[in-house]
Amino acid sequence: MKIRVQFYAQLCDLTGIREFDVSLPEGATIRDLLELIYSQRPALRAHDKSILIGSGVEFVDRAYKLKSGEEISIMPPVQGG
C-alpha cells in the first residue's frame, strides 16, 4: 500500500524533505513506517520519543494500522504560550 508522509517544522529541515511517498505491506503500523523512515533518515531517530504523529486531524499512536492512500504527518512536540 502507498502512504504519503509529511514532515513539519524542524523535522522538515532535519530530513531535508517536506513529504514523500512510501510503499508498505498491508497491515503495517506507524511503528513499521517509522522504522523505514529511520533507516533512510537516521538523524530523525534521535527525536523518536518526542515526535507526534497524525492521520488526518487525529493524533495516532505507534500501534495504529495504516490504510492505503493515507497521509501521515510527523511533527515536533506542540508548544504554545
Report on the architecture of this protein.
With 81 residues, the chain is an alpha+beta fold. It has one domain (2-75): Roll (Ubiquitin-like (UB roll)). It is built from two helices and five strands, in the order E-H-E-H-E-E-E. A hairpin with a 2-residue loop joins strand 3 (52-55) and strand 4 (58-59). The protein is globular. The chain starts with a strand and ends in a 6-residue tail after the last strand. The relative contact order is 0.30.
Q: Biggest sheet, strands in spatial order?
A: 2-1-5-3-4
Q: Cα distance, first to last residue? A: 39 Å
**Tally of domains:** 1
Mean pLDDT, nearest integer? Answer: 93
The ordered string of helix (H) and strand (E) elements is: EHEHEEE
Query: What gross morphology would you assign?
Result: globular
* SS class: alpha+beta
Helical content stands at 10-25%
Q: Which terms summarize this structure?
A:
globular, 5 strands, alpha+beta, single chain, Ubiquitin-like (UB roll), 27% strand, 5-stranded mixed β-sheet
Quick structural summary:
The chain has 81 residues and is of the alpha+beta class. It is 21% helix and 27% strand. It has a 5-stranded mixed β-sheet with strand order 2-1-5-3-4.
Write the layout of secondary structure elements.
Blueprint: E1 2-7, H1 10-15, E2 19-23, H2 30-40, E3 52-55, E4 58-59, E5 71-75
Parallel strand pairs: 1-5
Antiparallel strand pairs: 1-2, 3-4, 3-5
